[in-house]
């Protein structure tokens, strides 16, 4: 049973607020993208207004960057600060090994760049994002160079995926990432039994820039749900 939307939002807010407590004075922080990350950014802004002093924050999308500026978070870039202390972001799916599927908001490439620049990556989510097998509830997104859509699509289909070009909401126009690329959403009918193998195969496709698999990257997960907050670590 899917929880009521208001309850889901309260869980997301609880996870984001708890994650903001992890930020300490003097840190360089990575800011994720999406609804749960939105609550984290807002809570971090509130802490800064209350006196927390960080060196700066790197955003994984233009949207998150604008929100950060709005709530008073000092913004920097990886050019000036290539190593971050902490990255906080949401996920579309989380399995028991803390392997993730991300990219529902279309920012997967920048999210992965920021995540790999951080010493510590903590994922935040509500309990509906927990799955036993990745690809069960959402497609695996792939960011693709527009010139290569058709050959990449064919190679993804050869891996067993049902492939759909992501479109803008209420539009026939393709969704365009902050990097000027498109997203091909890949549905595997039975989910993905071996994420490492499928990710490796997808990464070998010329024209495919990156996938929404975030494997062996998250150190812990802050999960909010009907029983409150739980902190999970890989099995």
Automatic annotation (TrEMBL):
Phylogenetic lineage: Bacteria, Bacillati, Chloroflexota, Ktedonobacteria, Ktedonobacterales
Enzyme Commission number(s) of this protein: 5.3.1.6
Alphabetized Pfam families for the sequence: Rib_5-P_isom_A
GO molecular function, one term: ribose-5-phosphate isomerase activity
Domain of life where this protein originates: Bacteria
Entry protein name: Ribose-5-phosphate isomerase A
Keywords carried by this UniProt record: Isomerase
PANTHER family registered for this protein in UniProt: RIBOSE-5-PHOSPHATE ISOMERASE
GO cellular component: cytosol
Keyword hit for DNA repair: no
Record-stated family: Belongs to the ribose 5-phosphate isomerase family.
Alphabetized SUPFAM superfamilies for the sequence: D-ribose-5-phosphate isomerase (RpiA), lid domain (SSF75445), NagB/RpiA/CoA transferase-like (SSF100950)
Name of the gene this protein is made from: rpiA
Pathway named in the protein's UniProt entry: Carbohydrate degradation; pentose phosphate pathway; D-ribose 5-phosphate from D-ribulose 5-phosphate (non-oxidative stage): step 1/1
Annotated catalysed reactions: aldehydo-D-ribose 5-phosphate = D-ribulose 5-phosphate
Assembly description: Homodimer.
GO biological process: D-ribose metabolic process; pentose-phosphate shunt, non-oxidative branch
Active site: 111 (proton acceptor)
UniProt binding sites for substrate: 33-36, 89-92, 102-105, 129
InterPro entries registered for this protein in UniProt: NagB/RpiA_transferase-like, Ribose5P_isomerase_typA_subgr, Ribose5P_isomerase_type_A
Functional note: Catalyzes the reversible conversion of ribose-5-phosphate to ribulose 5-phosphate.
């Amino acid at each position: 049973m899917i929880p009521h939307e208001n309850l889901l939002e309260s869980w997301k807010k609880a996870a984001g607020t708890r994650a903001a407590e992890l930020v300490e004075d003097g840190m360089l922080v990575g800011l994720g993208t999406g609804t749960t990350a939105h609550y984290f950014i807002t809570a971090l802004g509130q802490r800064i207004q209350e006196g927390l002093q960080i060196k700066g924050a790197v955003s994984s999308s233009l949207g998150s960057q604008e929100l950060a500026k709005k709530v008073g978070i000092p913004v920097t870039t990886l050019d000036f600060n290539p190593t971050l202390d902490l990255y906080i972001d949401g996920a579309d799916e989380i399995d028991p090994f803390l392997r993730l599927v991300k990219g529902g908001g279309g920012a997967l490439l920048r999210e992965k760049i920021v995540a790999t620049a951080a010493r510590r990556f903590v994922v935040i989510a509500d309990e509906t994002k927990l799955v036993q097998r990745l690809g069960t509830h959402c497609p695996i997104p792939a960011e693709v160079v527009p010139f290569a859509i058709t050959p990449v699509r064919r190679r993804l289909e050869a891996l067993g995926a049902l492939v759909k070009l992501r479109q803008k909401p209420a539009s026939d126009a393709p969704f365009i990432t902050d990097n000027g690329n498109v997203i091909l959403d890949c549905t595997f009918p039975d989910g993905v039994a071996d994420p490492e193998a499928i990710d490796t195969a997808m990464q070998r496709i010329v024209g495919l820039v990156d996938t929404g698999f975030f494997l062996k990257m998250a150190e812990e997960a802050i999960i909010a749900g009907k029983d409150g907050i739980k902190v999970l670590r890989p099995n």
